[in-house]
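$ ./design --mode recover --in tokens.txt
reading tokens...
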């Protein structure tokens, strides 16, 4: 696979990260990534909680850990029973025990009120089709700001054209979760490259394998699974191998894997050109920055120039 440093702008240092063998599930290809770990970061499922919905477009998150900084994943959203569903436009850094209010959240469920019941909540990451728009809307206080794009995505999925993202995330959840069962999260994996069809869709890096395991379903099923579901190819019977022995079969499989790796490597975008990084916030030595330009967008968290977290996606 091509070196990962071609995807991120200087001065980020991706030495030590390595990509593994591609896995494919329909139109979705995932390439696992291993690399240096940064322990002590609070993971999103066991450490973060949506404490309450203050009002339309206003939510409070809690880092419930006794120690450790929480990195709030970029474009995390919550589905709740009998309450308004929201997603964040930006990642964030939160200290241990901190409650933080976000006033620029996107309401992703038009015209449905209610109150939060913590026991019924689960989180997702916005589908990649919405992520560039949501990133550009950070800081803007307008709870309905993503509804037109959600309506457009619903229509593209053959669903009623409404600002209700749960039409996809909840009603199509059984279909989308198939990607989780068809792609394997590997021991020690802390990141992945995602491709939809033959196009680069995103790069995700976590501080450690535990963090990545907790965000895995949200990424595979929702952030990238929606686009893959829409692009799902017609199923065809697998071509049989002509091997006459076990040794010949193994040789043919090895050739197939090598050819597949070369093919996926050719899908990577060209080395980043006009890409800009702008620091948004900091906590101790951690720096959260927004990346934009040259068909790439997203956010990264660095520590002394080394990436701790990254969520970057194709912006066109």
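writing sequence...
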């Amino acid at each position: 696979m091509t070196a990962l440093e071609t995807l991120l702008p200087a001065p980020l240092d991706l030495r030590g990260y390595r990509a593994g063998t591609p896995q494919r599930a329909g139109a979705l290809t995932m390439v696992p990534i291993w690399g240096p770990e940064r322990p002590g970061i609070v993971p999103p499922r066991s450490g973060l909680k949506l404490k309450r919905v203050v009002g339309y477009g206003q939510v409070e998150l809690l880092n419930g850990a006794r120690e450790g900084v929480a990195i709030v994943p970029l474009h995390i959203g919550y589905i709740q029973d009998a309450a308004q569903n929201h997603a964040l436009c930006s990642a964030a850094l939160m200290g241990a025990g901190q409650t933080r209010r976000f006033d620029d959240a996107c309401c992703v469920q038009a015209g449905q009120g209610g109150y939060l019941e913590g026991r019924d909540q689960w989180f997702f990451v916005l589908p990649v089709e919405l992520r560039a728009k949501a990133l550009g809307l950070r800081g803007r206080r307008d709870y309905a700001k993503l509804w037109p794009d959600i309506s457009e995505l619903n229509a593209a999925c053959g669903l009623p054209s409404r600002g209700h993202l749960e039409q996809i995330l909840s009603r199509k959840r059984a279909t989308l979760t198939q990607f989780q069962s068809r792609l394997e999260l590997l021991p020690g994996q802390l990141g992945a490259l995602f491709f939809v069809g033959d196009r680069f869709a995103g790069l995700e890096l976590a501080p450690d394998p535990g963090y990545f395991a907790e965000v895995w379903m949200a990424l595979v099923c929702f952030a990238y699974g929606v686009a893959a579901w829409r692009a799902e190819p017609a199923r065809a019977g697998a071509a049989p191998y002509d091997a006459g022995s076990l040794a010949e079969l193994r040789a043919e499989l090895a050739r197939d894997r090598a050819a597949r790796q070369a093919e996926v490597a050719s899908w990577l975008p060209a080395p980043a050109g006009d890409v800009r990084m702008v620091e948004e916030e900091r906590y101790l030595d951690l720096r959260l920055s927004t990346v934009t330009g040259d068909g790439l967008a997203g956010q990264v968290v660095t520590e002394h120039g080394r990436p701790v977290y990254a969520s970057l996606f194709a912006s066109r």
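exit 0
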